From TrEMBL:
The keyword Thylakoid does not apply. It comes from Salinivibrio costicola subsp. alcaliphilus. SUPFAM superfamilies: YajQ-like. Nucleotide-binding protein. PANTHER family: UPF0234 PROTEIN YAJQ. It comes from the Bacteria. Gene3D superfamilies: 3.30.70.860, YajQ-like, domain 2. This is Nucleotide-binding protein BZJ21_02770. Belongs to the YajQ family.
Amino acid sequence: MPSFDIVSEIDKVELKNAVDNANRELATRFDFRGVEANFDLDKEAVKVIAEADFQVNQMMDMLRSNLAKRGVDARAMDIQEMVHSGKSFSQQVKFKNGIETPVAKKITKAIKDAKMKVQTQIQGEQVRVTGKKRDDLQAVIQLIKDSDFEQPFQFENFRD
């Protein structure tokens, strides 16, 4: 029986490359000369540190553009509140990895509401879709791509 998995993962190597590129760009920018500012990557979170809040906002734009250049979807970003401590401002950016249960339930509900002849199963941080026809599965993929769940999805393990 044909099936595939809906997953949401970010490429950690590309994330690291994007942060490295953003740090290099930061070193060459004239408006950041003599300013203590940097991007710190810690597993799946990036901490943006600068001396002023407007500089943090500029750095967020730099990070988004470098992520786009490296092919990391900006919808995977979960931006936290800006924190002011001492003479520096910082902002934490976490990246969504895996499909949380409420989002998985929304995906399942959207597929059921479309009245497609497929079955869905939530398996941990992914959703498995099975059906009798390959065309039905491709229609589900198109449905997920067209709808907005505020998270990027990949489709893996397509089996006939």
